[in-house]
Amino acid sequence: MLNLKYLISRVIPYLSTIRFSNNRQFQSIAFVYLIVIGTSFADEKRQGRIILEDGFEQFEKILTQEGPPNGWSIWGKESVKDRPNFIIDTKNAHSGEASFRIHHLAESTSFTVLDTKRAIRPEKGGAYTISFWAKSDEDTEIFFGINAYNSLQPKIDRAFSPDYRPIHVNPKWTRFSFTFNEGLHFFVTGQSPHLLLTFLSKLTRGTDEEKTFWLDDILVSESKTPVLSPPTDTSVTSSAGLHHAMKPGKEVIFNVDVTRRIRPCYREIAGISFWRLQHPVSGPFNAKGHYSLNSKIEQSIRDLHLPMSRLFGVGDETSPGNISGEPWSIEHSIDRAATLCRKVGAPQEWFFLELENPEAHTSLPPETWARAVNYVKKKGYSFQYWEVSNEPYANAVLGRQPMAFPKPEDYLQHFLKVSRSIHESDPQAQVGLSIVKNNPMWSSYLLREAAGSYDFVVPHLYTFPESTMSKADFTSVVLTANAKTLNSALELNARIRHYNPERTIPILDTEWGLHGFDLNADAPGLVARNSNIWAGIHDAVRLIYYAREGIVRGASAWSMLSSDRQQPGLKFLFTDAPEQLTLRYWLYYHFGRNLGDRVVKIDGTSPFFPSGNALEAFAMPVTPAVATISDDGKKLFFIVANGTWDEELDCNLQLQEFQPKNVTAVLFSDFRKNASVAHPLLKQKEEAMRNLDFQITQKNLQFKLPGHSVAFIQMENELD
Q1: Are 596 and 265 in contact (CB under 8 A)?
Q2: Which class for 520: exposed (0-12), middle (13-18), buried (19 or more C-beta within 10 A)?
C-alpha cells in the first residue's frame, strides 16, 4: 500500500525545488573540496533552504520499468550501462517504500550521475550541505563526488578531475554528509555554475569486484555562511582572453611582417619530462644504479635537442621502485641525474628536479632539500630549478592513502620551510610551487600565502576532454579543449601577477599533454589517442600558442619513456621497441628545430571553430600559426596546424620585407589508414613525415594543408 503521507511530504517539495540549468558560458572551473561534517538530518532541514531532495518514491517506475529512477542518469560506454542493475528497490528503503539500488558488475565502467536538468546551481556566498543514506550488501568502499561544469547545454567539461570522497558502507544504513562553501572551496563566477552529484563503485572506473549498494534520502540544502579571509575570486583577476592573431574568414591567409618583432621565442616550451631515475625495465637506471638506456633510445633522445626536462622522486630513497632493497642516497641520485643529462644532451640549467615521493605519500624534511642544493654547488652542477612535491594535492582530492598533505595548509607550511632552506643554501636557486590551476584553495590560497617564497609556478596544464561522457570529436578536442586550457593558463597568470605585483613569476610546467579516459573508460596510459595523431595535433596547437603568445616560460610534456608498448598513452619512446619512434616524437623533433629567436607579428584570416553556439567563447582558428625569425634576420620559421580532421585547406603565406629563398617545407601527420585509432609507434618515419609541396609567387608562398597535419616551413631572406 502506498504511503500517501510520505508521498505528499517528499514528492511535492521535490517537484517544487527542481532547478534547471541554462546555457551560460564560462572559461574555467574548479573542483569542490569536500569537508565531512556530522549534522543530523532534522538539523540540516532547519539550517538551510532545501534545493534538492530525493527519497526515490517515484512509484510509476517501481514495477514497470528498469533503469535509473527519474532525475538520475547512468554515464559510461553504452554497452556497459547495465540498465537492469540500476533500479528502484521496494524491498530495501531507509524511509518510505523505495530506495535506489546500484549493482556494479565486475569490470563495469558505468557510474551514476544526477541528471543535468537537476544540476545544483550554487550562488555566491552560499554554503551547500549534501547528505544521503547508504548501505551495501557487505563491508566495502564506494565513492561520492562532485562534477563541476561550465555549461550543460552543450556540455562543457571540467578543467580538473572532480573531487571524489571514499565512503565506507556496510549492510546497515549509514548517513553521510558533506559541506562546501562558495568563496572558499569554489567560485561560482567564471568557474562552477553547474554541479552534479556522482556515485561510483571504484575510482578506476573498471574493477573486478562486483558491488551492490543502495542510496536513499538524498538532500541538498543551501544557506549563507560567512567565509573568513577567502582566496581572491578569480573573476577579479581574470585575463583579457586568448589572443588568436587571426580573424574569422573563409580564406586562409597569413600576413607575416618580419620587421615587427614582438617578444623572445622561448624554446623551452618544447621540453619532454622523464619519469624516474630508475626502473627495472624503462630506465634510465636499473635498481642497482647502473645506467641502462638502450643506445638507440639514448641517441633518439639526443636527437631531440631537449631544451627542458624534469625528473621526479629524485630524493625518494625508500620508494617501492627501489626493488633491489638498496636505496640510493640523495647524492647518488643527483650524480645519476647529471649522468643522464650528459648521456642524452639535456642542459642541466633547464633540468628540473623534484625530490619527494611522486605519489605525494610522503615528504622530505627541509634539511634534505638543503643537502641536495649544497651537493649541487659542491660538485659544480648547474641544476637550479627545484619543484617542491609532485602534485601534492592529488591524494587529498582523490582521498587516497597515505597522503603527505591532507590540506593545502599542510603543503603551504611544508613549502615555506623547504623554500627557505633552499634559498638559504643558494640565493640564486629557483623554487617552484605546485598548484591546481582552478581550485581556489590549492591555487589562489597557496599563491597568496606563499607569495615571496616561490620563483615559478607548476600547474600541470593537461587537457581533459569530456570523452567519458560524450563522443568528443577530433576538432573539439584539439582546438576547443585546448582553448579552455589556454584561457585557464591566462587567468592563472593574472592571479600570479595579482599576488606578486613586484615580481615576474613565470609558469614553468613540468607535465602536460592530452589526458582523460576514452569511451571505454580505459586509464589515460592505455588510450592510444593520448599519444597518436590526436595528441600530435593537440600538442602542436598548444605549442604554437605557447610560442606566439608567451603564455608559459617553459613546458615539459609527459612523458619520455615507457617500458610497455601496450600502454601507449602520453608516451614518446618505448624501451621494448627501441628501433621504433612515435608520432609525438617526430612532432617535437621538428618543432624544436623550427623555432627562431624572436616572435614576429602575424595576422590574417582563417575559418574558426566552433561558431554560433555556446562554445563560441572558446572558438579558435582552425589553422593556428606562429612565425619566428633568427636574431640576424636571415632565417624565417613558420609553423601552422590544421585542426580539422579531413578538410584540406588552401593556404596563402604573405611576407612583408622578406623575399623567400632556399625554402624547405615538411608536413607532419599520420598517413596510415587507421590514423584516428592507430598506435603511436611507427614502422618508419615516412608514416608521419613527408615533404610539403608549395609554390612561390613574388613574396607569397602557397600550399595545401591536409586535415590533421602540421607544416614546418623554413626559408632564407633573399633581400638580406
Answers
A1: yes
A2: middle
Cα gap 656→634, rounded to integer Å: 14
Instruction: List the beta bridge partners of residue 294.
Output: none
User: In angstroms, rounded to a whole number, what is the distance separating the alpha carbons of residues 553 and 566?
Assistant: 34
Residue range 316-328: mean pLDDT, rounded: 53
Give me 22's grid cell.
Answer: 541554462
Cα separation of 82 and 504, whole Å?
53
Residues 69, 73, 77, 78, CA torsion sign: positive
What is the Cα–Cα distance from 26 to 21, expressed in whole angstroms?
Answer: 14
pLDDT, one tens digit per residue, over 350-389 is: 999 999 998 899 999 999 999 999 999 999 999 999 999 9
Q: Residue 60: pLDDT band by 50, 70, 90 thresholds?
A: low
The conformation of residue 499, written as its DSSP 8-state character, comes to H
Give the separation between CA 173 and CA 134, rounded to whole angstroms.
Answer: 5
CB 694 within 8 A of CB 663: yes
Residue 620 near residue 608, CB atoms below 8 Å: yes
CA angle 417, 420, 425 (to 5 degrees): 125
Contacts of 517 (CB under 8 A, 6+ apart): 205, 467, 468, 523, 524, 527
DSSP summary character for residue 20: -
Closest by CA to 460, choosing from 548, 409, 387, is: 387
| Burial (CB count within 10 angstroms: exposed 0-12, middle 13-18, buried 19+), residue 686 | exposed
Return the SS3 of 487.
Answer: helix
Terminal Cα distance for the chain, rounded: 93
Q: Residue 252 in 3-state DSSP?
A: strand
- The β-bridge relationship of strands 211-224 and 561-562 is unpaired
Helix 408-425 / helix 366-379 crossing angle, nearest 10 deg: 30
Q: What does the pLDDT look like over 607-665, one tens digit per residue?
A: 999 876 656 778 999 999 999 999 999 999 999 999 999 999 999 999 999 999 999 99
Strands 608-609 and 598-606: unpaired
Amino acid making up residue 242: L
Higher pLDDT, 42 or 311: 311
Are 88 and 56 contacting, i.e. CB atoms less than 8 angstroms apart?
Answer: yes
Do the bridges between strand 620-621 and strand 309-311 make them parallel or antiparallel, or are there none, so unpaired?
Answer: unpaired
Please name the amino acid found at residue 594.
N
- Predicted TM-score of the model (pTM): 0.80
User: Which grid coordinates belong to 501?
Assistant: 605585483
Nearest by Cα to 594 from 633, 559, 547, 652: 547
Highest mean pLDDT among 52-66, 73-87, 453-467, 649-663: 649-663
Q: Which three cell numbers stand for residue 6?
A: 510520505
How confident is the model over 519-547, as a mean pLDDT?
Answer: 89
Which pLDDT does position 235 carry in this prediction? 52
